[in-house]
Amino acid sequence: MHLRARVMYDFDGEAANGELTIKEDEVLNILRQDVGDGWWEAENSQGVKGLVPQAYCEAVDGTQDGVSSPGSSVPSPSYDDRQDGVDEEWDYDEEWDGEPGSPTDSGLNGQGNYGLHGANRHMKRGGEVKTGTVSKTFKSRFSVFAKSGGEAYLLGADTKKRHIPANTEVRIVESDEGPMWEDPGGDWRFTCEITNPKKESKLKGMKSFIAYQLTPSNTGIRVSRRYKHFDWLYERLSEKFTLICVPQLPDKQVTGRYEESFIERRMDGLQRWMARMTSHPIISQCDAFQHFISCTDEKQWKVGKRKAEKDELVGAAFLQTITPPDTGLEVAHVETQHDNFAKFVKSMNDSMVVIQQTFHESRKRHMGPFKREYQKVGQSFNAIAESFEIDTRPKSVRLTDAVKNTGKTYEDIGLFFAQQPSKDLIPFEDFLREYHGMIQTFPDMIQFHKHTISTVKECQKQREDQKMDFEEAESVKQRADVVSYAMMAEINHFQDERVRNFKEAMEGFLTEQIKFYQNVTAKLEDALGKFQDI
User: Fold this and answer.
1) CA 190 to chain centre
2) Contact between 67 and 37 (Cβ < 8 Å)
3) Directed axis angle between helix 287-294 and helix 227-240, to 10°?
4) How many other C-beta atoms are found inside a 10 Å radius of the C-beta of residue 104?
5) Are 56 and 7 in contact (CB under 8 A)?
6) Could you say which DSSP state residue 7 is in?
7) Mean pLDDT score of the chain
8) What is the pLDDT of residues 246-275, one digit of tens each?
9) pLDDT of residue 59
10) How many Cα atoms are found within 13 Å in the side-chain-facing hemisphere of 128?
11) Distance (Å, rounded) from C-alpha 136 to C-alpha 423?
12) pLDDT value at position 32?
């Protein structure tokens, strides 16, 4: 028997996100209470099903599983989502270097699970004001799937007709290694160099920021971009490509933003991020990205910016642009590949934590204890050389000089250890940090795909129980194949890039290590030669 609940507040749901519109005092049947943080699946009196905010409802008969019983208080709302859009003129507070996401960037402009709509959230009962709240977390099992319209897409409930331009069509092709994103063709592979960070200002110097110069190799046209522009691009890409890895940008910083060391590190991080974007056959070709790296005219920039923000082919709607191979997929095979990659992601994530910590500790030892130990050895050689200076016979003098040289050699080696991390350990740490960030984008994608597989299996069961038409179940299966093909194409792209990137990173690291030990060996051989000349 389903739990029955009375609606305490109006809520205007979005059908495309699987939400159900409810009105005050309406009675619902609660079908599922384990959908995700703050959400239930409910059915109204007309038999329409959808998601409703848990805190907008109260149990008709007592309290069950965290539902407030009649008359009990409901906590006040807490909205910590950042605004969906960016100010049209890019004039939000420059005090933070124009970086959105500060505590002042809160708002109710989100959609679906991440921002409630214009509902009546306040209602008086018996003189008491009650307020509803929905917990919004980016780690919710259901969040990405619902926010992007995954449920509506799979079940064919997203009936909105969208024009799909020919240049936005995406194809997935079979290869020896499995499904892959189709090569866009032509000279699509390019790089984008980020250089010349420069502190600039506006409003007669009241607002300051750092501008970077971007130069794509395929056009040679230089454009100037600030961090907030990168942040805008990240928001557009992560919203559009639910099943493509879009790693986070380098961390923001409140203090020391204009220090040279921070600017250089940030530029290096932005360069790594940009390299990741230009190497992806889908991201590198999308309109928002091309606009970001090529537009030099201010008016055209605003036009392209508005166009990107009004893009309808985002989230699950982007799946409508994908043409997969004609071969249908076996659910069992897809599920096995899904589980294997989920295990891979977890294992790699755990190992990345360990190796990052190991390299961090090694760097500290090189710059501290190792340096001190070698310099301490050098100082001890210098001390004994000072005692040898009392004997001024020629052979003794040559021995004293050789011992002094050995002392200096060990002091120099101590400096070598302190300077070496900047050549190998720190760059490799940055590389590991980048990949750790990439790995952390996959759990949401995995959950999206896992929910897709579960939906297909549930539809198959309903078809077997004659509760769903064959045609309807088959259409769900075909749309699920698009999701699965996209997921596998992205996995294969990631694995190919991982092999290439780790090969280059390991070669670079070991090359610098060899140079380091060769320099240490050369120093020691030189010190040895002084003794052989005595």
Assistant:
1) 22
2) no
3) 170
4) 11
5) yes
6) E
7) 83
8) 999 987 765 566 788 889 989 999 999 999
9) 84
10) 12
11) 43
12) 85
How far is residue 365's CA from residue 359's CA, in Å, rounded to a whole number?
Answer: 10
Query: Buried (b) or exposed (e) across 267-294, using 16+ Cβ within 10 A?
Result: bebbbbbbebbbbbbbbbebbbbebbbe
Cβ neighbourhood burial of 61 (10 Å; 0-12, 13-18, 19+): exposed
Grouping H, G, I as helix, E, B as strand and the rest as coil, residue 44 is coil
* Alpha carbons 239 and 388: distance in angstroms, whole number: 73
Q: In the chain, count of helices (H) and strands (E)?
A: 12, 13
Give pLDDT tens digits for 51-70: 888 878 888 864 444 333 33
Among residues 323, 248, 253, the alpha carbon closest in space to that of 282 is found at 323
Kindly state the average pLDDT of the residues 368-383: 97
Structure tokens at 198: 């420069």
| Contact in structure between 378 and 407 (CB atoms under 8 Å) | yes
Q: How confident is the model at residue 37 (pLDDT cuts 50, 70, 90)?
A: low
For the segment 148-169, what is each residue's pLDDT rounded down to a tens digit?
788 888 888 775 667 788 778 9
pLDDT at 208 (0 to 100): 87
Q: What is the mean pLDDT of residues 130-137?
A: 37
Per-residue pLDDT at 253? 65
pLDDT band at 417 (very low <50, low <70, confident <90, very high): very high
Q: Are 356 and 433 in contact (CB under 8 A)?
A: yes
Contacts of 112 (CB under 8 A, 6+ apart): 14, 17, 19, 146, 147, 149
Q: What angle do CA 200, 201, 207 make, to 5 degrees?
A: 135
* C-beta of residue 172 within 8 angstroms of C-beta of residue 180: yes
Mention every residue, 6+ apart, whose C-beta is less than 8 A from residue 159. none
Reduced to 3 states, what is the DSSP secondary structure of residue 174? Answer: strand
Q: In terms of DSSP H, where are the helices of 77-181?
A: 143-147, 150-155
CA distance 310 to 368: 53
Q: Could you tell me which residues come within 8 angstroms of residue 79 by beta carbon, excluding any fewer than 6 positions away?
A: 106, 107, 108, 115, 116, 136
Q: What is the pLDDT of residues 287-325, one digit of tens each?
A: 999 999 999 999 999 999 999 999 999 999 999 999 999
> In DSSP terms, which residues pair with 213 in a beta bridge?
195, 224
Note the residue count of the chain. Answer: 534
- The better pLDDT of the pair 260, 424 is held by 424
- Hey, what amino acid is at 500? R
CA distance 213 to 271: 11
Matching residue, tokens 């040279």? 260
Helix or strand holding residue 515 (H, E): helix 470-532
